[in-house]
Fold YncE family protein.
Amino acid sequence: MVLGVAGVGVAAANTVVDTIPVGGSPSGVAVSPFGARAYVVNRGDNSVSVISTFTNTVVDTVTVGDFPVGVAVNPLGSRVYVTNQFDDTVSVISTFTNKVVDTVTVGIGPSGVAASADGSRVYATNSGDDTVSVIDTGTNTEVDTVTVGDAPNMLAVTPDGFHVYASNAFDGTVSVIETAGNTVIDTVTVGAGAFGVAVTPDGSRVYVTSAFDDTVSVIETADNTLLDTITVGDLPQGVVANPDGSRVYVANGIDETVSVVETAGNTVVEAIPVGSDAFGVAASPDGSRVYVTNRSDDTVSVIAVQKCLGSLCIATGSLVGGGSLVGAGSLGRGSLAGGGSLAGTASTGSFTS
């Protein structure tokens, strides 16, 4: 079908077709399941920018808690969940009104956040006390906590909802949580500075960025073993799989690029230039767009996956937009939340204090 996009002229596949100004120091990004909105958390001014994916403009701004980092949208698209690292809460936003309707107290220094496939649970990593909070979305209360590794950062839920994979930045591992009992059933060693986490749509693979050694670890979920290691750009942070699982996109903060990984061979096939200190990344539900937050220049890069001619792009699937429930977070609080990053710019929960 024909999809409208911003911009004029001819754009090759995998190129930035628009750049959207947002709030201060944007970090996490998530897109609604029906594709009309993208939500960007801005840690620099404690807000969430609501973007229309049809016009690539900010249509609303929502004030949330102190130092927001991660963001996730529930499967119905009715609620957005935002971790606030410095006041130990999760803000619950109604997408109908773009207002905060509830605030959930969780552990110390929450960063990553993800929703289950049925929307009944939301999981948040707490980097300050090495736990994952389990939130009942019916009551917006924390109903359980799971002890994981050192400085848990990001997490993702498998499509069947049976497992949660949480990266632990300071011990270079991924904790595998069984959601039936909220217990850790396995721990997988990955690269140094384990950061972003993405699960493929079929649930067979988990991709984890390792910011300290510039790699992505590939975990086979059948037996929770390390299947492969991929070298990407400098300071890989956010990661997302496209809807058909054929590509994984990795935001590289120092390189200011997005590495495109072909999952069939786990090889990097392209590096797309984006903005300064690329951090969070999300994909539209039809796979036609990838959204990347650039923390140092307060923008979001919009990548067109198809080839565009003039203001039109040819693709299959639904209308432009959509995205991923995988949020993007930080490496922590206190000793983890530094003023500078390895990229030499201000960084959310950077590796140095």
DSSP finds no helices and 32 strands in the chain. Residues 1-9, 315-353 have pLDDT under 50 and may be disordered. The first strand starts at residue 2 and ends at 4. Residues 15-304 form a domain with the Methylamine Dehydrogenase; Chain H fold (CATH 2.130.10.10).
